[in-house]
Design goal:
heterodimer, A: 109 residues, alpha+beta, 4-stranded antiparallel beta sheet, 2 helices, B: 452 residues, Lipocalin, 8-stranded antiparallel beta barrel, 5-stranded mixed beta sheet, 37% helix
């Protein structure tokens, strides 16, 4: 079982209400989706750790970033995805986490 | 300092004279310069300096080159080109608003500041609308502008507000000028300058054009739907009051340095703490009177272009920018205008940083120099004195002009020139047995330096 935390930072303006962290348990997902989500997270994370590819162009402003954390027991892994990231896996991960965050509801504290 | 102004901000605004001075024939140029000199001699002199061959050539060739694309509600960038320069309206409000907003901002930059697009070299203005689905944002990715349609529930399409378009384009200007690092106070200054340009565009395209006194100073007034309890995204006049809504939360912007928000969110609060310099600009603009592009906007633009700000880049603080605005207010207009700007910053709790050059440099430094720029260098401990001399392992004279440090030596013809930033100076040297060399200078005891 893993706990996923997700929040959005940045953007044209700062809205405290929209910056709130969303949390859900992967247990709330059907098993195939749960595994796919965690596999996707690890794929994107591994790619980022090994990547030497070009960075985003300099001078960017007002971009939103998606901060995603996966916690399993005491192990917490975190990745940050820029909204204009062209990595298809990263975009897919953000889409799935957003969908889950809205569908799965809050985790119990 | 406030003057009575008509709704058109003066009969013939100074920028018209400046435009004539730049674009007119010789007689028109002389007349325009004469008119400017009646206004402020310093500014006329500055304009004459600006009328270099390169400057005139750039402005004479300035032309808009807009390209609006649609992402068709996908994440594709730049997407499909739907309107190029000179094309007629498309009937798609987002496309046409983006096209018009790009044009309005280009016109302000050119007509007021004599600037040829974002890079001052005719850079095409590229934008994408209909980005993603119900995308609640507008952004600058370093190359182009990107606008969402909004979710329709809380946000309208982001092209609906011309100041938002001006804001995004101004990020391009900042990139090509000071390139302020997008975090903490330097990032808040980056955001602040974009709001300044955004507000100026909004006031410039208003019919009739608005004075600082008449403007509402709301950024993104058209963006929030009626479902939101708010008037816009930010208020430059009263930071912290733009919205207070159950869903969006309360506008977090401080209006005074005493309420500066220390946070790691939002790149260190770049959209939050920008409220402080935003209010300073509003106070300066209303204090100076007239339209923002007549005085206050020119002062801020000059400060943003100051090489000192680029040198500071990632370490620039509000007090640094405030100091530059004071310097440019005095240089462009005079002591009365400088006093207005200083008062504006003081009202938001920012004291302009004033570090006399002698005090900053007078200290013990360690010089490392290498003729021929080889891997090995010689080390010398030097004590810089406030009278412009230095002594120690070597003796001579030092001179600092802004961020440039010049050294000459009592016992030889060597000339050192370099750039001083904080505790480190680096540069080149010449005239030693016909060779050139490299040097760097580190303040003794500076962080990270061992053995000094």
């Amino acid at each position: 079982m893993a706990r996923v935390r997700y929040h959005v930072e940045g953007g044209f303006a700062f809205f405290p209400g929209l910056a709130a962290e969303r949390v859900f348990e992967t247990e709330a997902l059907p098993e195939p989706q749960r595994d796919e989500l965690l596999d996707l997270f690890e794929t994107v994370r591994a790619h980022r750790l090994s990547s030497t590819g070009p960075m985003a162009p300099g001078g960017a402003a007002d971009q939103q970033t998606y901060v995603i954390e996966v916690q399993e027991s005491s192990d917490v892994r975190r990745i940050v995805v820029d909204e204009f990231d062209q990595d298809p896996a990263a975009r897919e991960l953000v889409a799935r986490v957003r969908e889950c965050a809205e569908r799965c509801g809050p985790a119990t504290p | 300092m406030n003057h009575a102004h008509g709704i058109f901000c003066g009969v013939i605004p100074p920028f018209v004279h400046e435009h004539m001075a730049v674009h007119g024939d010789d007689r028109t140029r002389r007349n325009a310069l004469a008119a400017l000199s009646l206004d402020t001699t310093v500014r006329a002199e500055r304009l004459i300096v600006d009328l270099t061959a390169a400057g005139v050539a750039a402005q004479a060739t300035a032309h808009k080159e807009r390209a609006v694309h649609t992402a068709d509600n996908t994440g594709a960038l730049p997407g499909t080109l739907v309107r190029s320069e000179g094309d007629p309206s498309t009937g798609d409000p987002a496309v046409d608003e983006a096209y018009d907003g790009l044009g309005a901002t280009f016109d302000l930059l050119q007509e007021v500041f004599g600037r040829n697009s974002l890079d001052d070299a005719g850079m095409p203005l590229i934008s994408t609308v209909h980005y993603q689905d119900k995308y609640n944002n507008a952004a600058w990715d370093g190359r182009q502008m990107i606008f969402g349609d909004g979710d329709g529930q809380y946000f309208n399409r982001f092209t609906a507000a011309v100041d938002v378009i001006g804001h995004e384009l101004a990020h391009g200007v900042t990139t090509h000028e000071s390139d302020l690092l997008y975090m903490h106070q330097s990032g808040a200054l980056n955001e602040h300058f974009s709001d300044v340009i955004g507000a100026m565009v909004k006031q410039y395209v208003a019919v009739p054009r608005q004075t600082a006194e008449k403007a509402d100073w709301i950024i993104g007034a058209e963006l929030l739907t009626s479902a939101v309890n708010g008037v816009g995204l930010r208020s430059m006049k009263a930071p912290g009051t733009a919205f207070d809504d159950p869903v969006l939360g309360k506008d977090p912007q401080p209006d005074h340095m005493s309420r500066y928000v220390e946070t790691l969110s939002d790149n260190g609060g770049v959209h939050i703490n920008s409220g402080i310099p935003n209010r300073a600009f509003h106070l300066a603009a209303t204090g100076l009177g007239g339209c923002t592009w007549e005085k206050s906007g020119r002062i801020w633009y000059a400060a943003m272009r100051d090489p000192e700000l680029r040198r500071l880049r990632g370490t620039a603080r509000f007090e640094d920018f405030a100091r530059l605005t004071l310097e440019h207010a005095a240089a462009l207009y005079g002591p009365a205008e400088r006093a207005v700007v200083e008062d504006a910053w003081q009202q938001v709790g920012v004291t302009a940083g004033t570090v006399p050059a002698a005090e900053q440099v007078a200290d013990v430094w360690v010089l490392h120099y290498s003729w021929g720029c080889t891997d090995s260098s010689t080390r010398a401990v030097l004590t810089f004195h406030q009278d412009g001399s230095f002594s120690g392992d070597l003796a001579g004279k030092w001179h600092r002009q802004d961020g440039t440090l010049l050294l000459s030596f009592d016992d030889g013809p060597a000339q050192y020139a370099g750039t001083l930033v904080g505790d480190v100076a680096t540069g080149a040297m010449s005239t030693f047995a016909g060779a050139d060399g490299c040097w760097h200078l580190i303040r003794r005891g500076a962080a990270g330096i061992v053995g000094n």
